[in-house]
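so my prof wants the structure for this chain in the tokens format not the other one, which i didnt know existed until like an hour ago. anyway here's the sequence
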Amino acid sequence: MDPLPPRLHRDVVSYVRRSTRMNESQERAWFRYKQEYVVAVLHGDLSTSVAPEARVDWSEQFGREAPLIVEIGSGGGDSLVPMAKGRPGANVVAFEVFEPAVASTLSRIAREEVGNVRMVVADGAQGLAVLFDDASVSELWTFFADPWHKKRHHKRRLVGTDFADVVAAKLAPGAVWRLATDWEDYALWMREHLDGHPLLVNEHDGWAPRLEERPVTKYERKGLEAGRTVYDLTYRRRDAAQA
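here's what i got, hopefully its the right format
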């Protein structure tokens, strides 16, 4: 029998708070498309936190029942939009805390007519823990999360044992968690914290091949040009019989 689903306690955030000032085109996209694509949630003490009592009916938000895919840290939508466009049969929920990045994503969603995305301006780790039923997520994407290099900041890293417990609770049996980073120390950290998790299986028993549908973003290209290696990982949620 699976253990009781964990509660995620986050006293620190896994991102650096940047300016929320938008340029003119972002402002236009924000006010034109926010109501259609951005899901408002009940916030906690911080503007990016998710209140424990917050709830979202995802089928109502999308107007249909479909497999749920979640991305945490979608940035300007460079990966999100083309990958969601390639998954028209899925409902894709993206978390991003920076409104200018969300506005840029909204513009791209509208321009490319990608109707199966909804965005939440909130901490994605908290959002995953609070806004989704257990065993309801078919796929999770966490690409190029902030590596927080300094040892004293490692507690801010998104990927860790506590977050893995939440992911395991929210993924359906057989569902997958796809990760990528271009920092070797963070990649090894991920392996250290995830390979031994009782409810997650490293699908490739090591590094995963690059997901073909994931485009090379501007951020990733800069890392490659700087000589860094991109590490992909894929973990699958064990089913009840395997756990």
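also thought this was worth mentioning. The chain has eight helices and seven strands.
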